[in-house]
Specification:
By secondary structure, the chain is α+β, with helices and mostly antiparallel strands. It has 5 helices and 8 strands; from the N terminus they run ββαβαββααβββα. The chain has one domain. The two termini are about 30 Å apart.
């Protein structure tokens, strides 16, 4: 899906103890450790399952649609096929009903060994982007500016930073 150089989400220290979500170009696809500053004024977010669920719900409120969840098991092997389809359908249902707590409960109890490691979302304009667990954004011939703007709002709404 990546014809545009990757963009990396980063958290910048505002100097008052709070952080702001930002994005930087990452054409060489450097890893988080290479992008982070030694003084901790810039670091890469690590997105876990709970964060993905909360972000998906907040992005859905802004007209974005989740095209795909990428799952791994506890050994970080891909979870695909019928099992992934079933978990995806249940998550979509719970999130579209506004039941974020229910989605988190479902993942922690019924799908307890399945973790979200990436999502593919489409903007209202139909452009698609993949957001990975280390904050990398890749897309097809499109600038992710609309997604980044929505992520900033979603990030502060769900209080991840």
């Amino acid at each position: 899906m990546s014809n545009v150089p990757p963009v990396q989400l980063v958290l910048r220290d505002r100097g008052d103890g709070s952080e702001q979500l930002d994005a930087v170009e990452n054409p060489l696809a450097k890893g988080p450790d290479e992008l982070e500053s030694d003084d901790a004024s810039l670091h890469v977010p690590r997105l876990g399952t709970d964060a993905f669920v909360r972000l998906v719900a907040a992005l859905s409120d802004r007209g974005f649609r989740v095209e795909r969840f990428e799952f791994r098991d506890r050994r970080m092997h891909p979870v695909e096929g019928e099992e992934a389809d079933e978990v995806s359908a249940k998550l979509r249902e719970l999130i579209s009903d506004g039941d974020v707590s229910g989605a988190l409960r479902y993942l922690n109890r019924e799908a307890e060994d399945i973790y979200i490691v990436a999502i593919t979302v489409s903007e209202p304009s139909r452009r698609r982007f993949r957001l990975g667990r280390f904050g990398s954004i890749t897309g097809n011939n499109s600038s992710p500016d609309e997604l980044i703007s929505a992520l900033r709002v979603a990030w502060s709404k769900v209080r991840l930073g």
